[in-house]
Amino acid sequence: MSFSRADRSLVGQWWWTVDRWMLAAVVALLFLGAILVLAASPAVATRIGMDNFALAQRHFMMLPLAALAILGGSMLSPRQVRRAGVVLFLMFLTLTFLTLFIGAEIKGATRWIALGPFSLQPSEFLKPCFAIFAAWMFALQKTNPGVPGNLISVLVFLVVIGILLKQPDLGMTAVVTATWAAQFFIAGLPIFWVLLLVGLGIAGLVGAYFMLPHVTERVDQFFNPESGDTYQIDRALEAFQNGGLYGTGPGEGSVKLVLPDAHADFVFAVAGEEFGLVVCLLLVVLFAFIVLRALARLLGEHNHFIILAATGLVTSFGLQAIINMASSLHLMPTKGMTLPFISYGGSSIVAIGLGIGFLLALTRRRFPGSVEA
């Protein structure tokens, strides 16, 4: 793709202002994700009675939508990002609430709304959109003290996590909470409230351990493997051992034949077995590059909304990647959470694409007189 710097078209201006290095890293993740889903999904599809490449085909059908979300989102101005994020937040908050009543129950949780042969998980879209809404509220508190933005953000946050816990979805709750807390901290939350929030977070995790049986089981298995079934994590660790430095080769892995969710929650283990430590480290580098690159682009930024929104989006993206990879390596209790752009997923990959599109838009170069927030 080549455009003259004098090109004033929408695409031309986008090309010369977007962070092309970050965009290249995102494209690399999408490409590696397509390869890994193609490698991991046939075994899973066969095991659940589907055609070999049925899951891969579904994934490839969602890739154009994810790409469209990335490109479309990245072409917006910060003001358009704010408006789109807030409107989408209200829409997906409503849909997430409706899952409690009309959601399809899968593995004891009601997080999905059936749409014919497909299903929509509204909370995946709620996650990046809430980061935009919270940033707007925190920024309003700074620029217009007459608006109780912090209070509104706190109240809406409580509503969001209340719905997520009701589904229940503790992993999503943890990511949303950490993202919101990071934004609140950057917005200038006094140290007393920081310590209070940390204390409440710890209390929430302890409460989840004692009140949610599946959380109790996973934590107990993490600290004492003999206390329960550790089949999935044992197979995941076996995959990494089999792969060694360079892997067994594409399609040559054996653990994916017996590892549940090898195409989704444990796709990192498939990468470890078939492509080895080298590719696993490449994935880590790509995720780290996107996070650090986005933060670096914010160093000279003075617009409160842009700083807070981009911080929230990149925190959510990076934290989700860390949780997935750490779970696969048994560095933390297992949690069903996709690896961004790498795991099989419909709602997940499109929602992450939307969040990254917003992030690319917020980190574009802007010039005097341009429309900001």
Automatic annotation (TrEMBL):
Task: Please give the biological process terms from Gene Ontology that the record holds.
Answer: cell division; peptidoglycan biosynthetic process; regulation of cell shape
The organism's place on the tree of life at top rank: Bacteria
Name where it's found: Membrane
Q: Report keywords, A-Z.
A: Cell cycle, Cell division, Cell shape, Glycosyltransferase, Membrane, Peptidoglycan synthesis, Transferase, Transmembrane, Transmembrane helix
The principal localisation class reads: membrane
Q: What class of enzyme is it?
A: transferase
Q: Which Pfam families does this chain map to?
A: FTSW_RODA_SPOVE (PF01098)
- Would I find Metal-binding among this entry's keywords? no
Query: Which family does this protein fall into?
Result: Belongs to the SEDS family. FtsW subfamily.
The entry's protein name is Probable peptidoglycan glycosyltransferase FtsW
- What is the organism field in this record? Dongia mobilis
